[in-house]
């Protein structure tokens, strides 16, 4: 039995693939090093991320997979559910051992799992793009928090970079404790040390722009005015806007008393 550990990065996982093929030692399990549990049985192989080795694996996959399949594989990494590393490894191993395309080979569990995981991540990406709401801070920075089911922050930054190219903004993932910061020229992924009790809280009144409350109230008034009671369809509404996303939406917050 071979137990692999890596640093948790996508490049690190591709390095695990390279090392496993180099050693002909197929993994029994693959885990991030900070989560791995020591075992008395089998061989523990701690893999150090190597950009060159990871690049060689990815170049090999690019020759055998379509753009959509490459994207699905990366989305499976962002899926983060238990066992996703082994699924990715099994998929890549099948790719390199097959003379024909495996992309429609859904009888293979790893192929079906990658397809399903990619769909879930893609759906969460679009929901985050639709439901994120920014608050303007006193220094002109637009700030938003998210807590997605999957690690979709790297996938949504391009959308906001295009849509809000003329303003500085930060989107902070409260579950994974990192954020994306746009400085009017480029986006950088940054680690933010936010205390646990503040991660999901709205900005304090003194930190908000003076007009922010007025903007949010105007949005709530608009939402109420276009919401025709006779045409309400709660089931359809919940399908398009699940309740777990309401915390992001200004129009779903209690109306301030004036």
Rg over CA atoms: 22 Å
Please trace the helix and strand order, writing H or E for each element.
Answer: EHEEHHHHEEHEEEHH
Please give the domain count. Answer: 3
Shape verdict: globular
How much strand? 5-15%
**What's the β-strand tally?**
8
Q: Please, how many helices? A: 8
Q: What is the CA-CA span between the terminal residues?
A: 67 Å
The averaged pLDDT comes out at 84
Helix-and-strand structural type = alpha/beta
Biggest beta sheet attributes: 5 strands, mixed
Explain the overall architecture.
Pfam families: DUF4130. Residues 85-251 form the DUF4130 domain. InterPro entries: DNA_repair_put, DUF4130. It comes from Pontibacter chinhatensis. By secondary structure, this protein is an alpha/beta fold. Helix content is 43%, strand content 14%. The chain has a 5-stranded mixed β-sheet, with helices on one face. A 3-stranded parallel β-sheet has the order 2-1-3, covered by helices on one side. Helix 6 (153-163) links the parallel strand 5 (142-146) and strand 6. The protein is globular, with a radius of gyration of 22 Å. It starts with a strand and ends in an 18-residue tail after the last helix.
């Amino acid at each position: 039995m071979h137990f692999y550990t890596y640093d948790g990065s996508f490049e690190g996982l591709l390095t695990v693939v390279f090392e496993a093929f180099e050693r002909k030692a197929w993994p029994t399990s693959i885990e991030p090093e900070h989560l791995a549990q020591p075992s008395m049985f089998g061989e523990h192989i701690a893999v150090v991320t190597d950009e060159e080795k990871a690049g060689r694996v990815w170049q090999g996959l690019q020759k055998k997979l379509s753009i959509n399949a490459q994207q699905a594989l990366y989305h499976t990494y962002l899926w983060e559910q238990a066992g996703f590393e082994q699924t990715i490894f099994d998929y890549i191993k099948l790719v390199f051992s097959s003379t024909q395309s495996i992309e429609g080979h859904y009888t293979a569990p790893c192929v079906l799992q990658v397809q399903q995981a990619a769909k879930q991540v893609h759906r969460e990406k679009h929901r985050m793009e639709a439901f994120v709401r920014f608050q303007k801070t006193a220094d002109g920075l637009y700030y938003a928090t998210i807590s997605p089911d999957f690690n979709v922050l790297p996938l949504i930054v391009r959308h906001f970079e295009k849509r809000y190219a003329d303003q500085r903004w930060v989107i902070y993932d409260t579950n994974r404790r990192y954020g994306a910061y746009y400085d009017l020229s480029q986006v950088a992924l940054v680690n933010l040390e936010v205390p646990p009790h503040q991660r999901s809280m709205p900005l304090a009144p003194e930190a908000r722009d003076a007009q922010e409350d007025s903007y949010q109230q105007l949005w709530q008034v608009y939402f109420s005015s276009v919401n025709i009671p006779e045409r309400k369809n709660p089931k359809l509404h919940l399908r398009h806007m699940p309740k777990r996303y309401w915390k992001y939406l200004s129009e779903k917050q209690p109306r301030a008393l004036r």
